[in-house]
Amino acid sequence: MGCEAVVEVSCSEADANEAAQLMPVEPPQLGLWPSLALSGVYIGSSIMSFLAIRYIRVLEKRGEATYNNAAIVMSIEVAKMLVSVTLRYLSSGEFVPFSVTVGPQRWHLWRMSWLYITPAFLYALYNNLTYVNLRLFDPGTVQLFMQTRILFTGFLFVFLLHRSLSMRQWGALGILTVGLFIKYVSPTVMQAVGVRLLAIQLQAFLSSLAGVYNEVAFKREAGTSIHLQNFFMYLYGILFNLMLGLLVAPQKYLHESIFCNSHVILIPIILLGTINGLTAAFMLKFINVIVKAFAASVEVILTPVVAAAVLGEPLTWQDFTAGVFVMCSVYLYYTKGCGGNVTCKSK
């Protein structure tokens, strides 16, 4: 067939007009090698963060250090904002705190910043739901059912960003989800199935929605510096995380200190978290949220391999099987073949 078979999802004219207003304007996209390099930095910083956190957990058991998750998350948010201010100053000579407080364009900048309130709030909800879910479930259960965010991301990518995915790419996302399920599934995890799992599904959906909405916000203001966009994202993120954190886990903020019995390993944890967050933002603006989801999945598979090499942790059959599934999904998503010409898109 010379033309593509297209499965179209109809919507009302009013919905179409509203959708057109939300359509992001594409900034210049990165080429193959810069995209691979950015994804590599994202994956590498995630893996190194995992190893650093595992190390401080060991120190914590020995009583040599403490790990306050809430305080470190806030420290990383502050660090990302400071780096964004620095990068903006180095690239253009603009000192963002001056521009948004007394600069002549301050009112315009604050009006523009409203775009980042929603994704910042969604990310804050996601972060604080993590505390709730880790009280309800063990970490393996949370990780297992959080993998549905890949499919949520696919649906939102099509219906909110109005992009198209071929049936082959949908199949790749499905295989990716199954592969990550295999990594985390266990008899103990499956005993936890119940109504409470809706809390994890809500967290997974918020993760996907925040990523997609963040891409919309970044690309809708395509001509705006990403450093300025990041500044507002992290500023609102700090405020929302603090407010919600005081409601959900006040003891984390009021009774514990990141500097209590601190260890030098906290510095690379904050540094790596900062690099990871900034590269994620660049991926959302200059590539797309699907590529970020794939990068996160590859990181999940590579982490146990690195942990085995560095920490001596054993590899399991689940790690190997999940790795095969993830590699197959990456191959299917980025190559042409059966199902590659049948697309599903929102009009």
TrEMBL record:
What subcellular compartments does it reside in?
Membrane
**InterPro entries referenced in this protein's UniProt entry, alphabetically:** EmrE-like, Nuc_sug_transpt
What Pfam family does this protein match (any one)?
Nuc_sug_transp
This protein's GO CC annotations: Golgi membrane
Residue ranges of the TM segments: 32-53, 114-132, 144-162, 169-186, 198-218, 230-250, 262-282, 289-311, 317-334
Molecular function terms from GO: pyrimidine nucleotide-sugar transmembrane transporter activity
Task: State the SUPFAM superfamilies in the record.
Answer: Multidrug resistance efflux transporter EmrE
The record ties this protein, via PANTHER family, to: NUCLEOTIDE-SUGAR TRANSMEMBRANE TRANSPORTER
The protein depicted here goes by the name: Putative nucleotide sugar transporter
